[in-house]
Amino acid sequence: MNYDKCTSGNVKTHTVDICARISHGAVPFCKNISPETWPSCHKCTASRFNCTWCIKNHRCSRYPLDDCLENDEFVAGQNSNGLSIPYRNGPEFCPRIGGSVTYIRVPSGSTEKITISGIHLRDYQMPVKCFFSIGSGKTVGARVIPYDTQNKLIECESVDFSYIQDSKIWNVPLKILWGSTHPKPLDNPKGMQVQMYKCEKMADSCGECLTQKPLYNCGWCSDEDACSIQRNCHNTANWLPSQSNCPNPQINKIYPLMGPREGGTLLTIEGRNLGKTYQDIVSNVDIDGIQCSPIRDDYVPSTKIVCITGAWTVDKGKKSGYVNVVVAEAFAARSPQTFTYVDPVIKSIDPKKGPKSGGTKVTLYGDYLDAGTEREVFFGSKDDDQYKCIIQSVNSMSLVCITPRVSKAGSPGKLLMQIDKQIVMTDMEFTYIKDPVISKVLRKTAIVSGGIMVDVDGEGFDNIKYPKMILYHQAKTYEGDCTVQSPSRLRCRSPMLDSSMMSSVKYEEGLSLNFGFILDNVMATQNLSRNATFGNFTIFQDPVFLKFENELKSYQKKNEYLTINGKNLNRIQAEDVSIRIGKEFCNGTFIMTEKLTCTPPKYQPPSRKGGKYPEVEVIIGSNFSQYIGQLKYDESEFPLPYEYIILIAVGGGVLVIAVIIVIIMYTMKAKKNDSMMKRMQIQMDNLELKVAKECKEAFAELQTDMTELTSDLYGQVAIPFWDYRTYCMRVLFPQETDIDHPVIKDLEVDYARRDSVEKGLKLFSQLINNKTFLLIFVRTLESHKHFTMRDRVNVASLISVALQTKMEYATDILKTLLAELIEKAVDGKNHPKLLLRRTESVAEKMLTNWFTFLLYKFLRECAGEPLFMLYSAMKSQVSKGPVDASTSEARYSLSEDKLIRQQIEYKLMTIYVQDMDQFTQSPHPVRVLDCDTISQVKEKILDAIYKNAPFSSRPIKDDVDLVLIDQSPPTAEWSSGYKGRLILQDDDSTTRVEGEYKRLNTLCHYKVPDGAYMTLVPKQPPSYNNLSLSSTEKSRFYVPEKFLPHHTRSPSFQRTVSPQSVHVDIVDNYGVKCYHLVKQHDNEANNQGDRGSKMVSEIYLTRLLATKGTLQQFVDDLFERIFSTAHRGTALPLAIKYMFDFLDDQALLHAIEPDIVHIWKSNSLPLRFWVNVIKNPNFVFDIYKSNIVDSCLSVAAQTFMDSCSMNEHRLGKDSPSSKLLYAKDIPKYKKWVERYYQDVKMMPAISDQDMTAMLTDESRQHLDEFNTTAALYELYKYVQKYSEDLFAALEEDEFAKKNRLTYKLEQVRMAMDAEVYC
């Protein structure tokens, strides 16, 4: 044996650094030994080195005689060589902790004495202690109990074992320490530890608890409904040990819920306490008596059973039943859902043929196609896998699979489908036909960005649904979409490539690539470049276009062409290029090597981004676009706006017509006498003056009114929104008063019957919340011939109110009813375009109510402001001119029917209104007209004083009197009655009577001067309707002599008294017609203020155009706000996106054309909700809507409806004026609508989770708005009325019979009709 040089380390640090090399295969020396390297006897003596363990010194040594105590005791290593000491070798002689287990298990919270086996303990190692690593560590004493010659038992003193962590187990390392001076750890070769555990954390259910390992001693404590050890259970008699079975098995879920009648479905049952072993449930699972055989390998004790369903062959049709599990033949559980046996049916297949190379996506349509668990589709024999169609997706009504490749085209293969054990046979066939063939590719060049149109000729393309073009470059492929133009023509878009691949390619040469076409799975067309006939496809660099200087270019119409400079243009074709200028396109694109030329639109198009000038953008194909700059058109040669040109043209046209009439009349009357000619000339002169004056006024009004109206409306501070309940009531029950309807009052039932009625309504509420019952209820009522349209509206609103706190369920009901309505419209006599147009069903009114509930927040935060501004603008504009109090006709109107077609002379006045209770304050200035009636003046005064107050909180004009006071500024004398005053009324003793007509009093009638002072006081009794003036005022106010009082001093207004000496004549109104500005007759002479003079009344239609121009901004603002998906951070309401997606899905399901879907969307939201709101802003705001404002709103609403229509409006001379008025605006609005629908469609779909959260929040916010019990009571009246039909319908429905709905409804009726005896 040869040794290299070895050195000993520092003994004080218990380190021996020995470098040893051993020759001839001898045992190596102990080297690099430290207490940390081999800290235990077992590791030291079991090493491959020549090492010895000193027991007393508690160290591993190469030279134990030198390193250890003289009287030390040694254990030689198993590879020790030449150590002449009388001790055995190997780790089995080390003093150590014995035992065969690694863990000593102790329940948390207990105090235990731990007993451990000690092997080869020496007497000098006494005493011993136990150390447990709990918290900062616990050390306790221990006693050693002799067991045999080699083994002893070490019994540790009691220790509290507990932990607060929320975990099932917690391991506690332990040490046995020996020696009193410097305790040393006894060897623990197996790493024995104490394992604390908590039974309550190991299991949540009884079944899981009892299936824990027996060594934990866990059982189920029934009192505390928790897993625990026996001593922790308060009542140990109710503690179930692990040998028991849980008495309360529970099934939480089963799936699938449907399977074929022949059985074979793998039915999964999940729950709690479903047995401990497979034997507990092996023969005890059934579906309403039909055996379901559990699978041993899939059984998870206590929580999961997978069984194979048996067959149901008793009769045809569906069979539903609950799943029953009996555990250990003692404890039973029933599933909350039913499992249904169904007969899957295949109704149609699309397409019915495809290439023999396979790859065709085939869609099967039918019923219950997703029933069961395993399914296969074959086109031919089911025993031959070459006919197996690979399933991609499946749902209840459709299944998509990919056809396989077959060896040859030939006769059609029968379609059959196997679902679990049931084979679904059909007479439908799928035919494999010859693969499509490509004969010619008409273009084989493109650019890197792709999107270039490539036409392909061949045959058999009409059988390919999803063709694609493909380019190959190195290991990558690039695909572009294709469309089938005809059986012999494909049109593809070239794929987009990575621009980096062109870095080393010269432009003139291009990059030559292999190419082909993906036609299902036809291999022959996937790489045409392998055929020399087709060659390769060449890709060139994208063209480069130079921007305009300073990104702005002037364009003069006389130059005709727009030129854009660029590079690399000779590889593209004219049909590839389009040049967009703003919102329009340039015409006649011509390409040269470095230039593009085209002819811009005749007039400067609007900017797409709202800028001053339109943007110029070059578009090549479908992927490449480059911004060039902006195009500035030369100034127009005719600076007048289009509206002004129309006004001048109309006025000129009318003038020309008038001149022609004059000439004709002059020719016909030429032979009449001179006096006749003079009268004729005078009349024509007057007519010309009228026409000229009217046109001039209309032109001036259009220029001035817009600015004045806008400045006036900015004074509006607050928008008087109705609260949620009032708003909903006005929409849901428009015929009812919003304070007396039962749904907002306490239930009105006799006290003696209240308990029984409330009990019955509680049961009825449960029925209404049953989807089957509610649908049958609605269908039954709608099918009854005496169920009127008014009843449909009322029932729909009552259902909406009853379900308002359960909006998620209400939405589900609405979708089901709408789906049925759509199916009827598609399959029935009615054209689908008429769907949702009229309220002919409960579903249509429920849809209106659904949007009413969910769009209230959107109205308040977004759309309400422009709607209120439009209403205010109309009201303000109408009030600027005369308004006939009798006919509601006005000078300023959007409606031809409500237009005053006379020249009414009037004067604008300002009156000052003083608050009599606070006369020291400054009076309110109010603008009025001298032709206003007294009621109209009172309305304007109330509008001015209560400008920002809701209408319902304002005084009513009929409850106050208007008092004219002295014109001089107010003083304290008013309160003393020293000044004169006059109560003004529409009809009093001074009213002028003209034959059978009586004209309402106006300010002009009373000769009220401009700047007069007035006040409003509470309505005076009839006896107070007197005229009291001082002698100095008689000359200023028109008062007939017979109405003057005989006293000389007017009493104080607070003490108004009508002296008995005042004589008042009262005119009998019987048979007398009242009018204001225009008399309602046709046959009398054409006097000022009459309805005659029909010949020239059309000249006043220019006022419609002036009014329209004034209100245009407000109409645009409202329409733009409604047809925007986002405005000032306000997101599109989820309800709109959700309902539009639902309509899109239904259209896809029934193969409905896009134009019809557009009409559905317009009928569902704009027509059913927005038109109603626009026509009736008083539903949303606390305002008063006059007749003339209502007619203007109707024109705006009609324009809104026309904007959503798909029909082209052909206008002519007989077209309504409302359509002519907005003829040029409607195309713009139509584009807004189309963009809005497209934007909504492109938005991400709303997840069910988000929609449910929104609906739940909506229900929570308005939980107490309505008395749902009263709504149920009103609905029950319809149950009583149609009870016979309803009970018959419930008896005929299978699900209703299974749910015992007839019995439950009978219970409701018994409770509601219960007699009460006092």
Automatic annotation (TrEMBL):
Keyword Nucleus: no
Membrane topology: Single-pass type I membrane protein
Keywords linked to the UniProt accession: Cell membrane, Coiled coil, Disulfide bond, Glycoprotein, Membrane, Receptor, Repeat, Signal, Transmembrane, Transmembrane helix
Coiled coil: 677-712
Major location (coarse): membrane
Record-annotated PSI domain positions: 18-95, 198-247
SMART domains recorded: IPT, PSI
Keyword Transmembrane: yes
Entry GO CC: plasma membrane; semaphorin receptor complex
GO biological process: regulation of cell migration
Signal sequence range: none
Transmembrane segments annotated in the record for this chain: 644-668
Subcellular location: Cell membrane
GO-annotated molecular function: semaphorin receptor activity
Record-linked Pfam families: Plexin_cytopl, Plexin_RBD, PSI, TIG, TIG_2
Alphabetical list of PANTHER family matching this protein: PLEXIN, PLEXIN A, ISOFORM A
Sequence similarity: Belongs to the plexin family.
Protein name: Plexin A
